[in-house]
Structure formats: structure tokens, C-alpha cells
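README: folding subset

This subset contains proteins for which both the sequence and a predicted C-alpha cell string are available. Records are stored as plain text. Below is the entry for Alpha/beta fold hydrolase (390 residues), shown exactly as it appears on disk.
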Amino acid sequence: MTPRVEQFAIEASDSELDDLRRRLRSTRWAADPHNDDWRYGTSRAYLAPLVQYWIDEYDWRAQEARMNRFEHYRVELDGVPVHFLYRRGAGPAPVPLLLTHGWPWTFWDFADMIEPLADPEAWGGQAGDDFDVVIPSLPGFGYSSPLTVPGIGVAATARLWRRLMREVLGYERFAALGGDFGAVVTQRMAQDFPADLIGVHLSRYRRPAGAAGVGVSVAGPQDYGPDEAGDHERDRAGAALVASHLAVHSHDPQTLAFALSDSPVGLASWLLERRRNWSQCGGDLESVYSRDDLLTGVMIYWLTGTIGSSMRYYWESAREDAPPPENSRIEVPLAIGVLPGDVSALPRLHAEQDTDLRRWTRYPRGGHFGPAEVPELIVADLREFFRALR
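--- output ---
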């Protein structure tokens, strides 16, 4: 039986927004001496003025209106609530394209890619390059909530996404792109369901680290080529920038969840420190993102109460008893877009040995949140890659 799909609009209640403002105004600020450079973590010198803007000027209703320009749906699959944004392509034969985000991303990190992908002619592209754009929220993230079913990690999500695309939306085959955890999910889909995929585009290819844990690199200096000078060092340096959240989320996420679910300032601090350290922003968040964009990402976690379940996604993924197929080589056509400011820099050699690598693009700029930082570069790369696979 086809799962029942419900269309809905994103809308917070007035009481939720009033409660948020009350909490913001009554923040008990931690002392923060000698930290203007963020050496100890999120700086109060930056966060306090942002919170004042949040109270006085930020307009959630305007952000709701932006999101509600698109169609949003909910469906329950195997007891898991799944939200997805759906924008049909403008041409007669669009390729279905599944975009999967990571943490601390939300589905809205893809906002500036939606229209250029769906209607390329209106955005300086070629006719025939259009896509049906499908953007789900990962289980337990944002509007894919509340998640009460245990055991939902990467492998389970790959199965859910296959059901979403085939059973709910009726596509026999589809394309997929992923960043951060979304890249891991997309890679797993290519391993588990190669016949369903036209091609996949990743911000990185990562060999499984096994017992080493989620997000751990197994690349050594000998794996990098002459054109990848400095990439191994960047990969090692990036490991330090992800260590704290990997440790907490993979081992005891609920302990922190109580604090972040109670304090919007605490939540913003935890999320924005990652956004600053993992973006190619030179330490200046607002050189890449507007204040409204930064706060909208925080708001989606706050209003849906999903910081706890989003962190548990690491715990579940690290413990899934679902290894990839014995022959885990990826036979699906693969493209990789390398972001020079990303916290990881995986070698081309691994992808060449393990996958059907068709395209390897080193972008001139962009950090870990590529779709939000350099959407135009990724859109152009997607169009070019899938043009040959249509």
C-alpha cells in the first residue's frame, strides 16, 4: 500500500515565538574573558549582539514565507516521520534529484540551489538540464520529527530514501547528491541500491573507517597525488575541528540535549561554532552568511525540538549492525566536488580505486557547507555531470 502523504505549511505558533523571546531576554550569560578570537569556543563578543538582533530585528515569519514558496510534505515510513521539500522541474523530462543534508545543516541549506536546478533557463542555464528536486530532512532533524523509533542511522536512512523516491514519489531511478552526513547516506545508497541510481554527486568519498568510528579518515600521506599538495595536512587539521562534537554525539548525546533544548542561546552557540570553523569564512561568519540565514538554521532546530534526536543520529550510525555489501565497490557513476575550505580532504586515489569515478572537480572556493556557501558552483557541476547521464 502506498504510504499516505500529507502536504503542510511551515508555521510556528505565536506562543512558541513568545516563549523564545522570553528565554532570549532572560539569558544568563557565561563569563568569557580573552575569547574575542574564539580560542575557547564561541565568543560572547560575537554571540551577544547576534542574540540582540534575534530579539529585536529577526523576522521568523518572513523566513517561513520564503520556505513556504515551495511544497512541503510529510510521510511516515516504517514508523519514521519524513519531511521533504518538492519542486518539480520546468521541462518535459526532468531528472529526479535527491539532495541530502548533514549536521548541523538543515534541508534549507539547499535553498539557493532549488530554483536553478528546477528551472535552469530562468537562471542562465540550458534547456533540458532541469531536475525534479526532492530535499528530505534527515530522520530526527527539523520537520522529520518527532523521531521515537530507535536504530535509525545511515543504513536505515538509505533504505528510507529509496522508499521515498520509489514508493512515495514513483521514480524508478533517480540521481542523488549529499554533503556531510548526507554524503555518507548517498554513498551507502550507491552501495546498497546501485540499480536505482542514475548517478551520485558527493562532496567527498570516504572509505569506511570500521571500528575507528563515524567521520574518521583512513587516508595517509601516501594516498595523495602531486596535485593534492597540502590536502593531507588539511585533513589532519580538520580532524581537530570535529573532534568535540563527534565525541559527544557518538557517546552521550542526551546529556547535552537537555541543555540545548532548554536554552536557545546555548543551542546557537553549539551550532554556530561549527558553522564558523567548518566554513571558508576566515573567521568572519557574516562574510559568507547573513544573520538571518544563520538564525534560521538555529530556529529550525529550536522550533522542532530536534537537537537531541539530530545528535543521536551519530550514536545510532556508529552502532548500526548493517555493514555495507561484501563487494562495496560503487558501480554507480560518481562525481566528487572538492571544496578547498572543507574540514576533510580525501584523496582522489581512494575514489578511483573504489568507485566508477566519472568527474572530479576542485572548486576555487567553498567550505564544508558548500550548497549554502557556493551554490552556483555546485549547480553548474551537477548540470554538467548529469547531462551525459540523462
